[in-house]
């Protein structure tokens, strides 16, 4: 093997190794930052109102991390339609990495992009303008209590 072909083979091997590493980093970045993946974290929040408490485990996405950066919050929770309660946030959250998700079901905690509020679902829903933040841990019975209440949202 000539010196030139040895040098070219080393370049090919090195180039292939670098390309594989770059693709791995890109794929890892998409998994970590995309909201379409519903990978749960160990980050949990408590939502308390009217002497009732909900806990939720958050998904690993930029919007959920932005919500955590704002906590604790003392706001208001109110009924919205027949299937959810909402909490108006003091500012909009990042929508970076948002995308469509499936498997919508009661017990989802979502962020409503157009209005910038939390949507806490206790019945079936479908809406394209949502980012799933997580799911309630032990059911959603407190959401069935109708009315408007002061609410505290905090990390636990």
TrEMBL record:
<feature type="signal peptide">
    <location>
        <begin position="1"/>
        <end position="29"/>
    </location>
</feature>
<dbReference type="InterPro" id="IPR041183">
    <property type="entry name" value="Cyclophilin-like"/>
</dbReference>
<feature type="domain" description="Cyclophilin-like">
    <location>
        <begin position="49"/>
        <end position="153"/>
    </location>
</feature>
<dbReference type="InterPro" id="IPR029000">
    <property type="entry name" value="Cyclophilin-like_dom_sf"/>
</dbReference>
<dbReference type="InterPro" id="IPR006311">
    <property type="entry name" value="TAT_signal"/>
</dbReference>
<dbReference type="Pfam" id="PF18050">
    <property type="entry name" value="Cyclophil_like2"/>
</dbReference>
<keyword id="KW-0732">Signal</keyword>
<protein>
    <recommendedName>
        <fullName>Cyclophilin-like domain-containing protein</fullName>
    </recommendedName>
</protein>
């Amino acid at each position: 093997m000539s010196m030139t072909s040895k040098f070219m083979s080393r370049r090919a091997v090195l180039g292939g190794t670098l390309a594989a590493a770059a693709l791995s980093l890109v794929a890892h970045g998409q998994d970590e930052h995309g909201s379409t993946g519903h990978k749960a974290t160990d980050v949990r929040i408590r939502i308390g109102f009217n002497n009732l408490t909900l806990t939720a485990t958050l998904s690993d996405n930029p919007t959920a991390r932005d919500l955590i950066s704002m906590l604790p919050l003392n706001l208001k929770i109110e009924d919205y339609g027949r299937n959810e309660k909402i909490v108006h946030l003091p500012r909009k959250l990042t929508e970076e990495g948002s995308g469509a998700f499936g498997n919508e079901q009661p017990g989802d905690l979502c962020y409503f992009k157009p209005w910038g509020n939390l949507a806490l679902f206790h019945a079936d829903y479908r809406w394209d303008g949502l980012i799933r933040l997580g799911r309630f841990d032990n059911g959603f019975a407190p959401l069935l209590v109708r009315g408007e209440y002061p609410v505290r949202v905090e990390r636990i």
